[in-house]
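Technical annex, item 7. During the second reporting period the consortium partners agreed on a shared format for inverse folding records so that results from different sites could be compared directly. Each record opens with the tokenized structure and is followed by the designed sequence. A conforming record, contributed by the partner at site C, is shown below for reference.
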């Protein structure tokens, strides 16, 4: 997602599906969110971290995929825990396991899959935030931005997003509220 967002500066795409983050809004015109994807943490077996609130402590190292929406969010909000960035989701999971880190931040659907691979690990209940998955276009494309805004409103209202979530068995996501 970070590379995709950065590529707008080189005019490499016209439309993209990505998290609507304030740090990206200077370059990208976003539609309303069509999907909310919870962000939470995976902790290793036997971890003393029981709640999301336990993560932001001295000595806690959090693995994260660099430039992801949750990296941007955690950079703004974590005060005491240390963020360790990796180039992509797979590498952030590998760093979490191999370096025996205290937490892995990520999108809940992916963390649920990671927990199935890392025996004894667990996903913390709740969420620290949610990625507001949207459709974006470069800011200079005002007509496209307006079309995408209306399109997203329509597909949510018609129930298409909900049907696609159900049809494809996507776990841990919800349709974003209608604005």
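Designed sequence (site C submission):
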């Amino acid at each position: 997602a970070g590379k995709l967002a950065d590529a707008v500066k080189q005019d490499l795409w016209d439309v993209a599906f990505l998290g609507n983050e304030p740090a990206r809004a200077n370059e990208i015109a976003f539609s309303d969110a069509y999907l909310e994807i919870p962000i939470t943490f995976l902790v290793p077996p036997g971890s003393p971290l029981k709640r999301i609130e336990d993560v932001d402590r001295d000595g806690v190292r959090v693995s994260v995929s660099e430039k992801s929406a949750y990296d941007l969010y955690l950079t703004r909000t974590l005060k005491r825990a240390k963020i360790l960035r990796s180039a992509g989701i797979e590498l952030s999971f590998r760093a979490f396991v191999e370096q025996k880190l205290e937490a892995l931040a990520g999108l809940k659907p992916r963390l649920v899959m990671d927990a199935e691979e890392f025996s004894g690990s667990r996903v913390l209940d709740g969420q620290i935030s949610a990625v507001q998955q949207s459709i974006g276009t470069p800011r200079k494309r005002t007509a496209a931005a307006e079309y995408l805004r209306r399109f997203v409103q329509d597909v949510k209202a018609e129930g298409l997003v909900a049907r696609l979530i159900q049809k494809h068995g996507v776990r841990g996501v919800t349709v974003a509220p209608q604005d």
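The longest strand covers residues 129-138. The chain is about 35% helix and 25% strand. All partners now use this format for quarterly exchanges.
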